[in-house]
Specification:
Blueprint: E1 3-7, H1 13-19, E2 23-27, H2 29-32, H3 36-47, E3 55-57, H4 73-89, E4 94-97, H5 100-103, H6 111-128, E5 135-138, H7 152-162, E6 167-172, H8 173-178, H9 185-188, E7 193-198, H10 213-223, E8 228-231, H11 238-255
Parallel strand pairs: 1-2, 1-8, 2-3, 3-4, 4-5, 5-6, 6-7, 7-8
Helix pairs in contact: 4-6, 6-7
Length: about 260
């Protein structure tokens, strides 16, 4: 069954619950970069959230590089182990690997070496996820935010090489629109999709712009996708747009007969 959430700080969980959202998607890096005292104080907010923290984004802080000459595998492994432990404690299902600042290829660094580093990272993550119910969703970003993994098909290219059920791909309506990526790539890569991000024109709230939602949802239906859908965008009038966007999304999905 399709469920709807919003990418927001944990402090807004009760607000989302009030408006009828199913879950909240939070950024993991800001939590993990707190000092120990602040982390221990903050963690219960996620574990005991008013609505479940089913998904996470912003996996790596910008100063932890996963591509290029500054990669420190020991630091990456320790960070990931702590991230997975934290997300398991929160009872989460999905976490997103976007992290454009961490994964972008530095000038002068060979793309082939960058691809090897990303595959190495994904293998490390797959190992960390053994015995958990967590799935990683590789997020294709637009070319203003990253110079590698900029389409759903490219995300699937990396996931296929790992070939592990815990490594899947996200389709983000905003990034797809920015790159003029054909919507039928959703069906073409349906077996690899595990999460969806949405927005609308100007990366604003769903229902406030001209994105072709009817076509987008039709592709999701054709792909058999009925998982989580998170809005990731800027709000101009949260008290109006949060409930209106949920109503809009539910109506778009219902119109296509997607439950």
């Amino acid at each position: 069954m399709t469920t709807f959430g919003w990418c927001m700080p944990i402090e807004h969980a009760e607000e989302l619950q009030k408006y009828g959202y199913d879950y909240i998607e939070c950024a993991v890096a800001p939590l993990l970069t707190l000092d120990d005292v602040a982390f221990k104080k903050a963690l219960p907010l996620y574990v005991n959230s008013a609505i479940p923290v089913k998904a996470w984004n912003v996996l790596f802080p910008g100063d932890i590089k996963v591509v290029g000459p500054e990669v420190n595998e020991e630091i990456v492994r320790k960070y990931l182990a702590r991230a997975v432990e934290t997300m398991v404690q929160a009872g989460s299902s999905i976490f997103v690997f976007g992290s454009g600042r961490s994964r972008s290829i530095p000038e002068g660094w060979e793309r082939a070496r960058a691809e090897e580093q990303i595959l190495s990272l994904l293998n490390i993550i797959a190992g960390e996820l053994k015995g958990t119910n967590l799935v990683l969703a590789i997020e294709p970003l637009n070319t203003k935010e990253s110079n590698i993994i900029t389409s759903v098909s490219e995300g699937v290219y990396f996931a296929k090489q790992i070939n592990d059920p815990a490594i899947r791909v996200l389709a983000d309506f905003y990034h797809m629109d920015e790159e003029s990526e054909p919507l039928d790539t959703i069906v073409a890569n349906k077996d690899w999709l595990s999460h969806i991000h949405v927005a609308d024109t100007g990366r604003l709230a769903p229902g406030t712009g001209q994105y072709p939602y009817e076509s987008f949802v039709a592709q999701l239906k054709a792909a058999g996708y009925n998982g989580m859908v998170s809005a990731e965008c800027t709000l101009n009038d949260r008290d109006k747009e949060l409930p209106a966007s949920l109503e809009f999304m539910k109506s778009q999905w219902a119109a296509q007969g997607v439950k």
